[in-house]
Design a protein that fits this description.
With 402 residues, the chain is an all-alpha fold. The chain has helices at residues 5-28, 33-45, 55-67, 72-85, 89-105, 108-119, 129-132, 137-152, 171-176, 180-207, 214-244, 250-280, 300-314, 325-341, 351-354, 362-370, 384-390, and strands at 155-157, 163-165. A hairpin with a 5-residue loop joins β1 and β2. α1 (5-28) runs antiparallel to α2 (33-45), α2 (33-45) runs antiparallel to α3 (55-67) and α12 (250-280) runs antiparallel to α13. 34% of the residues are buried.
């Protein structure tokens, strides 16, 4: 058996650096005991080894900061310094894991103060120059994970324990989309897509990381858990968007179509990532039984058909309600949401092929029933009654029958 002499030497030197950092912290901050203890806990939590972060250091940091709320800035600066100065991959990854766990493990007040430290510039998620120039897959994963946490700082855990984006108030958008639901959906869905993109950006480098890299698996596992919540919220938003689609103004419908086009690409990539991670993340105790959602593939052809239908049929009808075709889309989306919430292992291998997609073939079927084509020379012969049957007045989409 070969002996990893270089690895052993690196760990030994790292241990010496950790002890030196702890000694400096105790000497330099001997007049501020609590602050010294915070720095020591950070160094010990992010030591130069491949062991996971010990829970006792997490609890110690949270306890020390809770006793001295003003020390949150000091904690943020010490974490940033640890991340920015190290050239060791393990220390950098453990520091990012520490930040992620602090975001997930503290109370709402602590989470808010930590986010405030980030936006004020005290908590920085940038690695040292030696790691920036490294192109190894394990280091590339660190860069992707840091970018994910950068976006994650704009999200909070609500009282129900679910992730939701922090939304800034914009009076222009409130006035443009008069209804609060429309305004909320059209703003939140892009935020969901941005965070899901950050998860997907971690995928290529993670696929090349060794299965024995427990730290990378722990980081990706935490990221996946949060992506499941975001994807579920995204499905709910898509259902609401489809339901209100023909009630939107023309600019809002264009924005909705762009969201759905982007979702079509993301759904395929998410499905591939989740399928890969089911096999990849299997070596860490509480991370190997993740409950993966069933990702429904959104067909770009159907999104384009919906966009064409919107521009050619609905734009000339003022004050009318959409045709019954939208009920098909809504029902299909509801099926996707139900499947997302059902994470039983027995359905993981069959759902993606047996269940209908968001925009299923009923789209074409319904169009063929209601679409009327007129020759350019002819005048329309359809009566107003037939048009009224196509565009049902005063009826919400959810109440339409097939």
């Amino acid at each position: 058996m070969g002996v990893d002499v270089q690895g052993k030497l690196r760990r030994a030197l790292g241990s010496v650096k950790d002890h030196a950092s702890i000694g400096k912290a105790m000497i330099y901050h001997h007049h501020h005991g609590s602050f010294s203890d915070i720095e020591v806990a950070v160094v010990r939590a992010t030591a130069h080894d491949d062991s996971p972060i010990d829970d006792k250091f997490m609890h110690e940091i949270l306890f020390l900061v809770s006793n001295s709320p003003s020390s949150i800035t000091f904690l943020a600066e010490r974490i940033s310094r640890r991340l920015g100065k190290t050239g060791d991959r393990l220390v950098a990854l453990k520091t990012l894991l520490l930040i992620h766990r602090l975001l997930r493990g503290g109370n709402r007040g602590f989470e808010q103060r930590l986010r405030g430290a980030h936006f004020s510039g005290h908590l920085r998620l940038t690695t040292g120059w030696s790691l920036m120039s490294n192109t190894e897959p394990s280091v590339c994963f660190i860069h992707g994970y840091a970018a994910y946490l950068q976006e994650r700082m704009g999200w909070v855990i609500n009282q129900a324990g679910k992730l939701e984006p922090v939304m800034s108030q914009s009076m222009e958008e409130v006035q443009f989309y008069e209804e609060k639901l429309v305004h909320t959906v059209l703003r939140r869905l892009p935020r969901c897509q941005i965070l899901l993109d950050k998860v997907l950006d971690c995928s290529p480098s993670f696929e090349e990381v060794s299965p024995s890299d427990g730290l990378a698996q722990a980081a990706m596992s935490n990221t996946l858990k949060e992506s499941f919540q975001v994807y579920a919220a995204f499905c709910e938003g898509v259902a609401a968007l489809v339901n209100m689609f023909f009630d939107l103004t023309r600019p809002a419908r264009a924005l909705a179509c762009n969201i759905l086009k982007r979702a079509s690409k993301q759904s395929q990539e998410l499905h591939r990532l989740y399928e890969h991670c089911k096999c990849k993340i299997m070596t860490i105790g509480n991370h190997k039984n993740l409950e993966y959602p069933s990702v429904q593939i959104i067909s770009i052809d159907h999104v384009l058909a919906l966009e064409q239908l919107s521009s050619s049929v609905i734009q000339n009808v003022v004050g009318q309600k959409p045709p019954a075709i939208l009920d098909y889309l809504t029902r299909s989306t509801k099926k996707m949401m139900q499947t997302t919430s059902d994470c039983e292992s027995t359905t993981n291998t069959t759902t993606n092929t047996s269940l209908p997609t968001l925009f299923s073939c009923t789209l074409e079927t319904k169009i063929s029933k209601v679409w009327v084509v007129f020759d350019e020379e002819e005048e329309p012969t359809e009566s107003q009654d037939s048009i009224d049957r196509l565009f049902i007045k005063g009826t919400h989409v959810s109440n339409l029958s097939l």
